Amino acid sequence: MADKIKTIAVLTSGGDAPGMNAAIRAVVRTGLARGLKVKGIKKGYAGLLNEEIIDMQAKDVSDIIQRGGTILGTARCLEFKQPEVQARGAEICRKHGIDGIVVIGGDGSYRGAQALSRNGINTIGLPGTIDLDISCTDYTIGFDTAVNTAMDAIDKVKDTSSSHERCSIIEVMGRGAGYIALWCGIANGAEDILIPEKYDFNEQNIINNIIDNRKKGKTHHIIINAEGVGHSQSMAKRIEAATGIETRATILGYMQRGGNPTATDRYYASIMGAKAVDILIEGKTNRVVGHQRGEFVDIDIEEALNMDKSIDDYEFEVSKLLSV
Q1: Is pTM, for the whole model, over 0.85?
Q2: Do strands 100-105 and 295-300 pair parallel, antiparallel, or not at all (unpaired)?
């Protein structure tokens, strides 16, 4: 089966994440080292449909490992959910001699990879998302950088919040997943952590906590709010009205997606990229590379998409204990 793979391609899809370039670099250089031709597909599945496909050599990925974002570009492509469009994508791969594709992205990107695999193109997924919300892996490319970026920003907001004796609501990314908020909440010593998996939307509890802490002499109050809970600006107005304490909301936003990837993201992404190529050479398809219990593994995409992932109850309980 290994003889079937002669040309591979790599694309990045969905939201960008620091470390994607390290993964691209690893795919290209490992593929070339294994005697394969390597192509890059620009702008994700949209670029595939538009045939924005380029040949890649080792020099094309020089000096990119330290850069955030993705040199191939990325885009969301709702059109690719349609079976006839997925079939056209596979035909375009065959037209360009592509036997296998490495797709770097999140759950939505995996569904596209799964579709290509069903249409005869060997496809491997890499977990590229800052949200850490892919169930089959303990690590996702970009999370470590994003959480460190957010932590650094929150430290700075905390300084000024203390100086002005304010309450600060700091909103971090995460959509339906509260991992960035939980990690920052613990790492930054927040008084309250609001995550979609655990928040009961009882603002009165937060207000009571702020008032109690102020009575105990606390000069500031930090609330880390996950994007999936949101409404930070309106929440700040309600808290200020209820407590009489100046309250400000800061939404960190897309700064969490950018910046130089940490050593962890560069290293893990590099190993995962190389493993994806070697899995393709073995003749495998419809797999996802993950990291479980300290080992790099590959899992069936269908199985990966059906796994559940939730915030660990004990870790969340610890976050509450440490905030007292």
Answers
A1: yes
A2: unpaired
